[in-house]
Write a structure and sequence with these properties.
With about 210 residues, the protein is of the alpha/beta class. The protein contains six helices and 14 strands. It has a single domain, classed as Ribonuclease Z/Hydroxyacylglutathione hydrolase-like (Metallo-beta-lactamase, Chain A, 4-Layer Sandwich), CATH 3.60.15.10. It has a six-stranded mixed sheet, covered by helices on one side. A six-stranded mixed sheet has the order 7-8-9-10-13-14. The structure holds zinc ion (2 copies).
C-alpha cells in the first residue's frame, strides 16, 4: 500500500494519499490546498485517483477539491451533514483573512458503516460528529489505520466552538467509534503528527 501524508495550506491541514500498488488506483483524503504538491505526489506514484474523501467540510480540508477534481476526474465524497460547506468555502476562508475556491457539489454522500472500495483498498466510513455535524473517520481495517480529520489529534481534540460543533458529541464519537478500534490502530489526524489509539487513551488529557 502506498501512503503519503503531508501538511498543506496556511493552516497546515494534513492531506493523505492512499494508493493500491497493484491496481495503481488511489484516493486523496482532505485536499485542503496546494493541489500542485498533491498532484506531484500522485504522479510520483503513478496513481489514478478516483475518489476525493473529505473528513469534513472546513475549507482547510476541502479547499483543493475543485482543482483536484479538474485534474483527476475523481469523485468528491462527504457526509451530507457537511455538504453545505462546499459552496461557501471562499466566504468561510475570508473570515480568517484567507482564500479558498468553492468546491463542486459532492458526487457521493457518505453514511455511517458504508464501505468504499477503490482498487484493492477498502475504507469503512464512521460518522464521528462533534467538530462538525458531518465529520467522518475512514478506517482501513487490514492496515490498522484510521483517518480522523479534526476529531482527535495527538494529545488534543478538535475545536467544538464552530457552528454545529458540540463538545459532548465529540467526546462520545471518540469513545464509541475510535477507541473500540483497538490500541494498535494508528490515528492519522487532520493536523499534527501520527499517534495511536492506545497512546491517546492513556495520554490525551481530554479522556
Ligand atoms: Zn482542520
Ligand atoms: Zn475542521
Amino acid at each position: 500500500m502506498i501512503l503519503e501524508g503531508f501538511p498543506v495550506g496556511p493552516i497546515q491541514a494534513n492531506c493523505y494519499i492512499v494508493g493500491d500498488e497493484d491496481s495503481r488506483k488511489g484516493v486523496v483524503i482532505d485536499p485542503g490546498d496546494e493541489v500542485e504538491k498533491i498532484l506531484s505526489h500522485i504522479h510520483e506514484h503513478d496513481l489514478d485517483v478516483t475518489l476525493i474523501l473529505n473528513t469534513h467540510g472546513h475549507f482547510d480540508h476541502v479547499g483543493g477539491n475543485k482543482k483536484l477534481k479538474e485534474a483527476t476526474g475523481a469523485k468528491i465524497a462527504i457526509h451530507p451533514d457537511d455538504a453545505h460547506y462546499l459552496d461557501k468555502l471562499s466566504e468561510s476562508a475570508a473570515v480568517w483573512g484567507m482564500t479558498a475556491e468553492n468546491s463542486p457539489p459532492p458526487d457521493l454522500l457518505l453514511s455511517d458503516g458504508q464501505i468504499l472500495e477503490v482498487g484493492g483498498l477498502k475504507f469503512k466510513v464512521l460518522h464521528t460528529p462533534g467538530h462538525s455535524p458531518g465529520s467522518v473517520s475512514f478506517v482501513m481495517e487490514d492496515a490498522q489505520i484510521v483517518f480522523t480529520g479534526d476529531l482527535i489529534f495527538a494529545g488534543s481534540i478538535g475545536r467544538t466552538d464552530f457552528p454545529g460543533g458540540d463538545y459532548n458529541t465529540l467526546i462520545q464519537s471518540v469513545r464509541e467509534k475510535i477507541f473500540p478500534l483497538g490500541d494498535e490502530f494508528r490515528v492519522l489526524s487532520g493536523h499534527g503528527p501520527v499517534t495511536t489509539v492506545g497512546h491517546e487513551k492513556v495520554h490525551n488529557p481530554f479522556f
